[in-house]
Amino acid sequence: MRKLGLKTLCLFVFCAMFGYLSAQHNTENRIEEILSRMTLRQKIGQMNQVNARKPDEKLYKQIRNGEVGSILNAEDPVLLNQLQKIAVEESSLGIPVVFARDVIHGFKTIFPIPLGQAASFNPEIVETGARIAAVEASENGVRWTFAPMMDISRDPRWGRIAESFGEDTYLSEEMAIAMVRGFQGEDLSQPSSIAACAKHFIGYGAVEGGRDYNISNIPERQLRNIYLPPFERSIKETGCATIMTSFNANDGVPPSASKFLLTDLLRDEWKFDGVVVSDWASVSIMVTQGFCDDRKNAALKAANAGMEMEMVSGCYTDYLEQLVKEGKVSEKTIDNAVRNILRLKYRLGLFEKPYTDLTSERKVYSEAHLRAAKQAAEESFVLLKNQNNILPLGNKVKNVAIIGPLADAPHDQMGTWCFDGEKEHTQTPLNALKKQFGENVNFIYEQTLAFSRDRDKSRFAQAIEAAKQSDVVLLFVGEESILSGEAHSLADLDLVGVQSELLEELSKAGKPIITIVMAGRPLTIAKEMAQSSAVLYAWHPGTMGGPAIADVLFGKSYPSGKLPVTFPRYVGQIPLYYNYERIGRPAKKNEVLLNDIPLEAKQSSLGNTSYYLDAGFDALFDFGYGLSYTTFEYSDLVLSKYTLTKDETLQVSVILKNTGSHEGCEVVQLYTADVAASASPLVKELKGFKRIILKPGEQKKVIFELPIEKLAFWNTQMEKVVEPGKFEIMIGGNSVDLLKSSFVVN
Ligand code: GLC
Fold first, then answer.
1. Catalytically annotated residues
2. Distance (Å, rounded) from C-alpha 22 to C-alpha 29?
3. With a 6 A CB cut-off, is 101 part of the ligand 1 pocket?
4. Residue with the nearest Cα to atom 12 of ligand 1?
5. What is the largest CA-CA distance in the chain?
6. How many angstroms separate the alpha carbon of residue 666 from the centre of ligand 1?
7. Distance in Å, CA 246 to ligand 1 centroid
8. Residue 279 Cα, ligand 1 centroid: separation in angstroms?
9. Could you say which of 3.10.450.330, 1.10.10.10, 1.10.357.10, 2.60.40.10 is the CATH number of the domain covering 632-745?
10. What is the mean pLDDT of each run of 10 residues along the chain (746 residues)?
11. Distance separating alpha carbons of residues 130 and 136, to the nearest angstrom
């Protein structure tokens, strides 16, 4: 019996493998077969992505002639099927087009902005959100999203920090692979799966001055240590199907024409077999960047570097055929690009099922989707201050003033990059508070400012009157959604308009103020912090932000988020991030500040360390910071070994205790630091995190397994190595208050 079992098992495995391999083999054969029948013109057609905001006869003709490989921004499933019908039934080869869209943090059911999702430190809820977005987008015909954006972002002046997972490489890796898994599902060929796109390749988050579309200057070693890991893991661990090149020239070379990035690294080193798509006209703007003489030269440089699908600027359509005939671009290059594009379409199952099933039950805004969006919002909130435990309000209050331009702002609450989210479905804090707690609480609402940039103070008096009549004020301030996102960099991170003045005036009413901030980035809110009894940072929380905020404020749920990005005190401190490179004269505590400098001080007397006379060095809030409704105590940091070899795994444990009176969820964070290396190492790096829920008085031993190989870094010889020597290891609830120990790698 056992022999038969083993034999059957082997047979089963063989068939399964053979089946998989034959499917793979079959796909490659089918690709070659189609390729062999394609004219050069038809091949180049596959490399063309067109914008279908307003489809017209020109577009229909392009599709019929096989001159379109992908269409973005078509948004109606009936229209998509009509366009697909032309491609499949009226073109000579019947190759389906793939419909693409920016489904960044939800399609119809909008989740928190990715920066907020990162604050949850919960990859599972991020994966769930992406899965829901994929289900909703695919039932509308979208099978390719331009997400996750995984640009490491250390500069909150850059509006696109809102779309990122923040400043840390490891956190971005974990969030990126979770989102790719969610979008692509178990099987990319399933109708509810959509191709993910790792973007923007590479270094876009490091644009000089935080000014969008600017240049970056990141040496290869920093690319490999800081910026590339999320992309590499998304490709190698989750088979991310596509990758998008970025606008920023890095050290003078636009990624859309970087052979090092697109061929040497992506293909030869990482063995990527997906599709490289440009960013919006990032091929043609290389002329403006002075990198190309004209659009023909842009097509030449991009194609020869390995850029495969050109988004909307048409240089390939206009010049590639001529370039091949002139021998400047080989047809082999074109064939390789078309193979990858056809492979994507096969993997998506588009050859078998090119049309969207319009008869199936639609799942947009389903109860389950809304529930998940609420959970994601709750877990994204970061409690920055809670003086005298004023929160949760529970049944402590009877009269509550709701004030400010973001208390009832259904459009702005969704945040940036919400093409298909509908504000009619947004549940705002005002509505949710009344609905969920209006029976026992008297809410007095004063919008006071019509929008965040509003400078009209004429309704301040009513706000102050409402405050006087209340036990507590809930003040909703922040940014309209349009003030973050693409092309929306800011040089000043103070609250816009007269929101700060409103808080100032309200504080004179002598009632506790709980400030809820909705924003797409860190803001410089030191003054507002001082004037508030509690501050909850809600980012742009999406469709269900209102019910989430209401439940957290009144204690039906609790905040557990941690900051994925450092909050500066002053915009002048930027770039300011936690994992900076060790320097020779690091700032000390209590440095001499501007007003403490003695008159006629001699030049050498101010100490010699790296800080600002007028701002010190400390951040307003550090990476990983976030309070809870309870308190946690860390003790007994223990290492399994204190000397290890490179191929061993270190086990690190700590005791975490809930020392407060509320249940709470603590994100336990593990950091390491190389004390000395062949290139100056970082002062610390996040290497692990765990969300631990504990009841009051409960304690738990939290264990991390840290393979020593995870301490590897790229050295100046461009080798990824773990260098022997001393390492520090730290555990805590943020990147500053940490239990420390050390070990040696030999
Ligand atoms: C934009 C963005 C990119 C987006 C693309 C398509 O310019 O840079 O992130 O996916 O164009 O909308």
1. 279
2. 10
3. no
4. 102
5. 96
6. 35
7. 9
8. 6
9. 2.60.40.10
10. 58 57 78 97 98 88 97 92 98 98 98 99 98 97 98 98 98 99 98 98 98 98 98 98 98 98 98 98 98 98 98 98 98 98 98 95 96 98 98 97 98 97 98 98 98 98 98 98 98 98 98 98 98 98 98 98 98 97 92 90 78 94 98 98 98 98 98 98 98 98 98 98 98 98 97
11. 10
